[in-house]
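Regression test case RT-17, inverse folding.

Input:
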């Protein structure tokens, strides 16, 4: 069946990676369908990883940007539109598009009237499952993890640990702290280096200052090699696929690691790890015992990090032992 399908998913690159399995399932159901993804410009690197997306529309999350998107929806002659937005006005936008089949989350009576199918939003599950429910009315195919068909998986290098300390600078500018400090990353690497394993360090454009501080605080006997991926998401994915163990923050590289199947340890503080990693023994959350009555708080109770950050205080020697013993 030929279909012209528009997906709308606005967010960072991590959100696009988590959304990708839903696109893949529908493409497998309708192999000749043309898939268009409306996304933010900052997440365009998703195209380095997948060929399941035929066309993109870049969207600004402003009133003018939404009006521009509506015009493009009118011109696109789409048979179906599927949106991940949970804002109550999303159903109005989809209705005004005039697209015959309109699927989105049930946000109340308005969505039930304006969408052809409204899907129950369950934010308590792994995000891949949450997004995948949007395509369940159209296919029984289930894709449980991101698949990167443009990425060449590399042979594993035994006894290698890759460190990616970074998080999005946009999240930091918005007051969201989801990782340990650069000094603490250096301390962790110093502990890991004592094991004799090969330690690799990498990062993106947002991580230059963090990498600089880490390198300045490494012990003289800590042999660490920096690997430059030239700010390419594809290169990063292939690098992660090549190592025995990956250590990172709650950020996009985590979701890449899930897709390429590398054993990964992830620092989690104020976010809910159950929503961000699959039930998979190869993806291991690094947690502490900090007691907070509203933990996990970020996105559930707060939109910025608190000043305490007790949930991101770790015994790094113990963390290193946890990584080395698994």
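Golden output:
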């Amino acid at each position: 069946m030929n279909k012209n399908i528009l997906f709308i998913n606005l967010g960072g690159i991590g959100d696009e990676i988590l959304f990708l399995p839903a696109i893949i399932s529908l493409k497998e159901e309708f192999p000749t369908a043309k898939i268009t993804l409306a996304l933010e410009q900052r997440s365009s690197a998703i195209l380095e990883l997948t060929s399941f997306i035929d066309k993109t529309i870049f969207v600004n999350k402003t009133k003018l940007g939404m009006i521009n998107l509506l015009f493009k929806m009118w011109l696109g002659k789409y048979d179906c539109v599927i949106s991940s937005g949970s804002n109550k006005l999303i159903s109005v936008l989809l209705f005004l598009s005039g697209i015959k089949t309109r699927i989105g989350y049930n946000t109340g009576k308005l969505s039930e009237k304006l969408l052809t199918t409204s899907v129950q939003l369950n934010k308590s599950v792994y995000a891949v499952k949450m997004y995948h429910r949007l395509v369940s009315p159209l296919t029984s195919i289930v894709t449980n993890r991101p698949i990167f068909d443009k990425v060449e998986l590399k042979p594993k290098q035994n006894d290698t640990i890759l460190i990616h300390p970074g998080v999005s600078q946009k999240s930091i500018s918005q007051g969201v702290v989801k990782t340990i400090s650069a000094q603490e990353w250096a301390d962790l690497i110093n502990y890991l280096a004592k094991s004799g394993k090969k330690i690799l360090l990498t990062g993106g454009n947002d991580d230059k200052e963090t990498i600089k501080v880490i390198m300045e605080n490494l012990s003289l006997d800590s042999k660490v090699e920096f690997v430059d991926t030239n700010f390419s998401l594809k290169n990063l994915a292939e690098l992660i696929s090549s190592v025995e163990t990956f250590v990172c923050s709650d950020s996009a590289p985590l979701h890449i690691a899930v897709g390429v199947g590398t054993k990964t340890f992830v620092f989690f503080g104020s976010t809910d790890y159950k929503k961000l990693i699959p039930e998979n023994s190869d993806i291991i959350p690094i947690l502490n015992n900090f007691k907070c009555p509203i933990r996990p708080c970020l996105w559930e109770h707060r939109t910025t990090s608190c000043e305490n950050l007790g949930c991101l205080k770790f015994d790094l020697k113990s963390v290193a032992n946890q990584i080395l013993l698994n």
